[in-house]
Every structure is written in structure tokens, then in C-alpha cells.
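Board notes (copied after class):
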Amino acid sequence: MNKKQEADLWIAKFEQKLQRVRDKLAIQIKPGTTGLSFIIYKGEALVGGETGTLGELIYKDFGFQMPKW
């Protein structure tokens, strides 16, 4: 079950794709910039956090900071 090499390759490819998206968006995120994720579903606003797929993308991969409540 040693899949470390395969996992490292997958992560490297993901980071390359992520960088291409960042380059296309041409967004310069300054340190400390906050962002909020939410989804409108059936008339309700669902606010995201730091975990989960969307939170990981916004706060970890793109570098936004979670707002202080």
C-alpha cells in the first residue's frame, strides 16, 4: 500500500493546475486579505468554513484569511 510516490505526483500536478488558474485570474492576494465562502441553496445561504473542499480552496490554496467573527 505504499502510494507515497503516486500521491506526491498527484499533489504536484494539482499544484501546477492551481497555479495556472491563479495566473489566469491574475489576482494578487495581499497577506491578511479575508474572504468568505457561501452557497445559495434552495433560498438559504450556507456559509462555509476553513474545512471542506471550498474552504480548503479559498483559505489554503488561494491564501485568503478567514474573517474574524
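Comment from the instructor: The beta strands are 38-41, 44-47. DSSP finds two helices and two strands in the chain.
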